[in-house]
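INTERNAL AUDIT FORM
Audit reference: QA-55
Scope: verify that the stored structure record matches its stored sequence.
Auditor: D.O.
Record contents follow.
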Amino acid sequence: MHPLYNKVKNTLHKTLPSKPFLGIMCLLLLPFIIFLHLLPATIPSAAPPLHPGYYANSCPNAELIVRNVMKKAMIREPRSGASVMRFQFHDCFVNGCDGSMLLDDTPTMLGEKLSLSNIDSLRSYEVVDEIKEALETACPRTVSCADIIIMASRDAVALSGGPDWEVKLGRKDSLTASQEDADAIMPSPRANATTLIDLFAKFDLSVKDLVALSGSHSIGNGRCFSIVFRLYNQSGTGRPDPSIEPKFRQKLDKLCPLGGDGNVTGDLDFTPRIFDNQYFKDLVNGRGFLNSDETLYTYWKTREYVKRYSEDQDEFFRDFVEGMIKMGDLQSGRPGEIRKNCRVVNGGPPMDLVVDGYKDRRILSY
């Protein structure tokens, strides 16, 4: 029995002896009162409001700092722009945009870095480390790692020749991460359009959002590991994907021979360092690198958007920005913090506490 129950019951017996009916009613309502008492501790806190210029007073140069570090990183390693841009998708789809994907594993927590969609795929975590270090120097414990992902993703696109836009900020960093959650939600490069449509719908993202956001593959590279099935055993047929343009397939066969190194990379489109609509032109011509790319043209519900974006880059840019903003609004509502180091929570690893007989996994901060 909860201790509050006995305390209130004893109080009622002492204070309401002359009013037995009222006392009985109070005792009947007591479980509900206990429930209301415990409710704030069991329901996640509301997500913080997001808005442009969130750091205008607390860290006025935050966005400039992020862009300057991104610019230096992309000069040093051009591929890092595409790598960092993908962080927003991989972070926001797993329990909201909370920086959970940046947490390193601990003895008691398996994070998201080694999940099926991230291991040997996501890279350039050190760029976020550099951004965080610069922000901590300018404005200690002010700018969240979750917001860094949003700003850096935007800057990666803009610095690659794509659109620029105003981002909403004010997110908190998660207190934990989950490899299991990442494995359960993130799509495979083998995914077809119907699977992707269903996935995006779970986050209130439309078919248009799906196709526009897939345009993030306008820059960057993909691994042979992700396409070898397309080249040699599509859908278990023992044959290549018939949608691949023959000359392009010959190029891919040479790049990714059967039994070869799965970590060899190929360009995701013909202009892998420039954010443009070439990606969609390639899909129309059967030159999509990933199955999850080419399926957007072969499936009727997504084909029209691919065709439109291949012909109108401005429309693609507008819809891409709209999709990135909508994706950036995804929040879990869970408690959070402003991490000092994006790789670890401020208070150390999670610990299991037992409170009133219930196990509760919490972060002990100091």
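Auditor finding: record pair retrieved intact. The longest strand covers residues 350-355.
Action required: none
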